[in-house]
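Justification of resources, computational component.

The compute hours requested in this renewal are based largely on the per-chain cost of generating structure records like the one below. Each record pairs the submitted sequence with a full structure-token output. That output is archived, and it is also reused by downstream analysis tasks.
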Amino acid sequence: MTLGSPDSHLPDDASPDYAWLYARTRGGRERGPAGARALLDKLGRPDAAFGSVRVVGTNGKGSTCAMLEAGLRAAGVRVGRFTSPHLQRYEERVRVGGEELDPARTAAFIAWAKAHVPEAAFFDLTLALACQVFAEEGVEIAVMEAGVGGASDATAALADVRAVALTNVALDHVATLGPTLADIARDKAGAVRPGVPLLTTATGEALAVVREVTGEVGAPLLTPQTHPDLFALPHPPRLTGPHQRSNAALAAATLRTLGYPEGVEAALDATFPARLERFEVEGKTVWIDGAHNPHAALALTASLPGGADVLLFGGLARKDTAATLEPLLGLAPRRVFTSPGDPAVPPEELSARSGGEAVPNVAAALALALAQTPPGGTLLVAGSLYLAGTVRGLLDSARPGG
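The structure output for this chain reads:
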């Protein structure tokens, strides 16, 4: 099996135009919906042409969005889906009717942005592009994944929100939303609007904060405790892991609340890449999961009770990498550490602390991890969605005809 050259993990969209777009980091720009709202107004308010379902939470947003998209499509709705980050192609972020955005439309939008809004932030630009495409394509309902937070996220700019689905709340993005769990919960719950239902599978302290916020705003709060029938599942979802049952229950409840109960079966059959995704490589099993924070790592551990033979791990410097890695160490006796992106936690630092080998280049690290995995054994890849996307690309390219 040939995994390609050391640079084969570069994204498919590594061109000057995309480079310009990726360089529009928020930097010193103020977070919140104001920038996105200004962009949408400049484009003629395309977000007013369709209804939105905002999906917020610490983990599980992408899987929940995939289930909602599948369920709404099965119910005959013209659906748009906006998610982030992408794994291999920028156009994964914007879908209409289950199809990814045409790169030609990305190029046209980048050209417009360079000329008219060169100061705008990346996420705001991508959200505006999605809304423009959804309006032009006659989308009826768009499933919109928040980036970070709820009240302080760019998706708070959306004009016609029909429901808010809050997956869960854990300690992540503490520098932006924290420092406490209650602070994070309050910001995420701030996605709610008067009269708009908020559905959540959050528990404990987070749920208490959500209940307080919805009461203050005057929004219906729907939970498995208050509406058990709404969240009931006829069978487990296709996506693997106990945490996916919670995501599926939230998606099912949201579909029923929107008036599309007939979409529940399709939602339960949905798939989403890099969420405990299985590959077979030369008689070895490779599990790829985008677990990138402690909460997600604990969920991954519960989903793989049999463990793995080798762990390939890499984390970004802005994440709590030590706490994310800790629960995964017990899953595999052998570890290979790599660099999923920039800035990453140096793999040498991780190997010195936890044992294992450090291989900064992802392609070389994957080759070593596979070599260390015995015939019939299991390799687990985790720690970053960027790592997951790169490894998926390497495995896809190594397939016959890839």
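The two ends are 12 Å apart (CA to CA). Confidence is low (pLDDT under 50) at residues 4-11.
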